[in-house]
C-alpha cells in the first residue's frame, strides 16, 4: 500500500501514449527539428537501399538482377528521395533546431505553421511511396523530362503520385521558408544585428528566399503536367504544336536554385564548425556573407546550362555558360574563407572537423567538374554520361551529406546532452570517405569513356566492367559506414559520454544554454556586442555556461505557445485532397472536409499561430 508521500507508478501504456501525443501535437521548434531530421534520415536509408540495388544491377555487364522497368522506378525514386525527402528535410531540421537558438529566440515566428510543415513533409513522402503499392512507382527520372512523363510512355499512375507527393512536400518547404524569413528578420535578440548573425543563419535566410522564388516554377510545371496526363491538354505535347522543352525550362528554373537550396545550408554548417575547431573566427566574414547572397542571385541565371544539348541558339548557350562560370567566383571565395580560417589555427581533428574538411575537398572536386560542364563544347560531349553523375554526386553527396554528418557530430551533444563515440566516428568517417571516392571518382572515367547515364545494363567488352564493379564495392563501403553511424547514435543515446553544456567551447548562442535546452530555450542572454557573443576577449577564452547565466538578464515573462492537434489535422486534409486525385474523388471530398475542420480549429485556438 502506497503512502501519501509515495509516487504511484505510471502505467507503461499511459507513458507511451502521453509521449506519442506530445510529439504529435508539439509546436516546439526543437522537437519539430528532430522530427524533420528523423524523417529525413529514414528516407535517406530508403534512398540508400535503392542506390545499392542500382549498383548491384550495374556491377557487371548484361546483368538481370533488376527488370528494366523496376530499374527506372528505383532510379527515379532514388533521386527524388535524396533531394526532396532526405537532403532538404535534414537541413530544415537542423535549421529548425539551431537557428532560433543562434539568434536568441524562444521559438519560430509561427510555431503551428512550423508543425504543419513537418507533417506535410512526412505525409507527402508517404504519399509518394504509396505509388509502389498502387500500380507502379514513377519511372521517368527525378527530373521527369517530357515526353517521357506522358501517358504514352508512363501509362500507370506513378508520375501522378510523383506530381502530387512533391506538391504536398513543396507546400511544406514554402511554409517553412516563410517562417525562417520572418523569424530571422524579426526575432533576433537585442544586439544581434544582421552583421553579427552566425553564417549558418545567413545561409538559411538566403536559402529560404530561394525556395520562395524557385518552388512556384516547379509547382506550375507539375500542374501543367498533371493536366496533360489527366485532362487531355497539350502543354508539353509536340504533336499539338507545343514543345517538351518548356518542361525543362520550368523545371531547371527551379532545379538549379535547388542545388544551392541544399548546398548553402551545408556551407553554413561548415562555416560554424571549422572556426570552432580551428580556434579562430571565420576568415572574411563579410566576404563570406556577400558571396552567399551573390550565389542566391546568380543561381537564377544559370538554369539552361542543364540544356546545352537541346538546341539552344549559340548566343543563349554561351550566355548561360558564362553565368555558370561566374557563379564559381563567390563559391571559390568560400573555399578560400575556410582554408584561411584553418591556416595557422590550433586545429582539433574531431570527427566533426574531419567531415567538415572532407566536405571542402570533395566540393572542390565537384566544382571543378562543374567548370568542365559549363564549357558548352565540352558539355556537348559529356552531357548524359556518367561524368555528369560523378559531378552531381561530388557536389551534392560530397557537399551535403559530408556537411550533414559533420553537423550531427557537432550538434548531437546540444540536442541530446551526450557525445557520439569519437572512435566509432573516426571509423565512420574513414569508411564514408574511402567508399565515397571509390564509388564516384571512377564515374568520371566511365563518362569520358562514353558510358551513358540512366541505362539499366550495358554490353560486355566496352571497358566499363572494372570501374562499375569498383563503384559498387564503394557503395557497400559507404553503407557499412552509415550502419556504424546509426549504431553509434543508438549506443550514445543509451550510455554515451555526458557532453556538458558547451563541450566544443563554441561561441555562438546555442552553447549559452543547457544541453539539451529547456522548452523556453534560455533563462537569459549575455550582452550581444560581437559576432562571438560567448567569447571573452579580455581573457581570450569562451565564457563558461555558469558565467553566461551570471551575466544574463533574466526574462521573467516567458510565454510559450500551447501544443496543438490542428497542424496534423490540416496536413492530413491536404494530403487526402492530393491522394483523391489518384484514387477516388471521395477521398478528395473527405480531405476538403478534414482541411476545413483543421483550419477552423486552428484559428479558434488561442496562442501563437
Describe this protein's structure.
- The protein has 18 helices and four strands.
- It is globular.
- It has helices spanning 12-25, 29-57, 68-102, 111-129, 158-186, 199-231, 245-278, 285-298, 314-326, 328-342, 351-374, 376-382, 386-416, 422-448, 465-495, 545-551, 566-580, 585-604, and strands at 524-525, 535-536, 541-542, 553-554.
- Helix 2 packs parallel to helix 4 and helix 8 runs antiparallel to helix 10.
- The chain starts with 11 loop residues before the first helix and ends in a 5-residue tail after the last helix.
- By secondary structure, it is mainly alpha-helical.
- The chain has a single domain (25-563), classed as Up-down Bundle (Cytochrome C Oxidase, Chain A).
- The strands form two sheets. The chain has a two-stranded antiparallel sheet with strand order 1-4. Strands 2-3 form a two-stranded antiparallel ribbon.
Secondary-structure topology with pairs:
Layout: H1 12-25, H2 29-57, H3 68-102, H4 111-129, H5 158-186, H6 199-231, H7 245-278, H8 285-298, H9 314-326, H10 328-342, H11 351-374, H12 376-382, H13 386-416, H14 422-448, H15 465-495, E1 524-525, E2 535-536, E3 541-542, H16 545-551, E4 553-554, H17 566-580, H18 585-604
Antiparallel strand pairs: 1-4, 2-3
Helix pairs in contact: 2-3, 2-4, 2-15, 3-4, 3-5, 3-7, 3-13, 4-5, 4-17, 5-6, 5-17, 6-7, 6-8, 7-10, 7-11, 7-13, 8-10, 10-11, 11-13, 11-14, 13-14, 14-15, 17-18
Keywords:
609 residues, mainly alpha, Cytochrome C Oxidase, Chain A, two-stranded antiparallel sheet, 18 helices, 65% helix, 1% strand, globular
